[in-house]
Amino acid sequence: MEYLSGKKVCVLGLGLSGKSAVNLLLEKKAHVIAIDDFQDCLSPKEIEDYKERGVTFFIGSDVTFPVNRIDMAVVSPGVSREHSFVKELVARCIPLLGELELGWRELQCPCIAISGTNGKTTVTGWIVKMLRENGYQVTAAGNIGTPVCDVALKSGELSTLVLEVSSFQLESVDSFKPEIALLLNVAEDHLDRHGSIDNYLRIKARLFENQKEDDYAIIQWEILQKFKQMEISLPSKTLTFSDSEESANLYLKGNLIKSRMSGWPDTVLDLNRCNFRGSHNAANLMASLLAGRASGLPLEKMIQTSLEFQSGAHRCEFIAEWNGVKFYNDSKATNVHALLSALHSMPDNEGDRKNIWLIAGGQNKAFDFRTISQDTMRRVKSVYLLGEASAEMRSAWQSFVPCNLVGDMIEAVFKAGRCAVPGDVVLLSPACASFDMFDSYQHRGESYCVAVQQWLNTMKGV
Questions:
Q1: In this structure, what CATH number is given to the domain that contains residue 356?
Q2: In what helix (H) or strand (E) does residue 216 lie, and over which residues does it extend?
Q3: Cβ-contact 337, 117 below 8 angstroms
Q4: What is the model's pTM?
Q5: H-type alpha helices, 108-166
Q6: Could you tell me if 384 and 421 lie in one domain?
Q7: Residue 62 shares a structural domain with residue 118
Q8: SS3 breakdown of the chain: % helix, strand, coil, rounded to 5?
Q9: Radius of gyration, alpha carbons of the chain
Q10: pLDDT one-digit tens code per residue, 253-269
């Protein structure tokens, strides 16, 4: 990327991705202008250190910057395309990149990219494990927590880089081209930013737009049909999976993963041998197996690795059991689709169809909670709602399930715990973002675990 040397490049947004972009640009001898609306985006020491390295700062929502002084801009994924400064950049035809695009241009190894509304982090971790156990030098980056720019300059040491990619990152790609790209699922999410489900789908489709015919697109069968309806074509080799449609290359039939591909047996795996629950995780596994096939991994070794897979923290994570009541943490469920997957995956209670005490709520992302029906809530005994969207959710659901407003996580856990009987499940699956009450979904899940422990201590008389 010698074209960066001596160029005036502004970085808009100084969170994790923005700082990573600044560091890479400095390595490439660009003149960096760092911009953020928030005064506390960096510590005074960080600002001083960057200034010593030649970075110019414009910080604060009331600060104006002469756009005609820059050659290109790098926009952090958290900065909306509706931001006034971004609009001005577009209007002046100034080249605009995301941190993902900037880092990818510096990569020195092939990459596998995973996107989708739900399951990205799980599948990223599973693919990394498969590759490592087959001798690959591999690491994960992207939306999973490590910015691409952090690993780009050292990527020559890797066999493959596995990237978790969000829709926010895909908004600002240009030449980004993963050799293997996976789109796991698409459900209503981030509509407060993307506007409509069709626009969201088109942004997700950008994952594949620069692929060549010898690359691989691994995509949920149902999304592929939707793309065809929208006249979105994929230029690469296509492999499909589905938890219901037998026309897919891999599909779920009962508890069996079945194959329609040459060289693989008709029955690939009995999920009763695995350590995870739910058809959504079966779909995650099928996508991971197809990525392994595209990478040339032997099926037998992938199956052996698959038997060790587990869902990660805050993803339908079993926390504790007391007197026959099980507590699950699904704080990563930040949309309605993820909530539905969690409800379907919870243990049944023989003899009583209703056995779930649901804790939900938080910050709405332009969801219509009325899409949750009486049938999808058929196993829920009662719902405890907290956060900004609690009243809206109660209004949408109270006609078919009891809904109770609570003030905090401890109150929700204690009330659900008191009501639960042996065979019941207390499930945190919010269907909302966490930022109204917590720093992140991880913070929310940790708060739930603390509340569960406090409840258990109370029951034990500790």
A1: 3.90.190.20
A2: strand 216-220
A3: yes
A4: 0.84
A5: 120-132, 148-152
A6: yes
A7: no
A8: 35, 20, 45
A9: 23
A10: 999 999 999 999 999 99
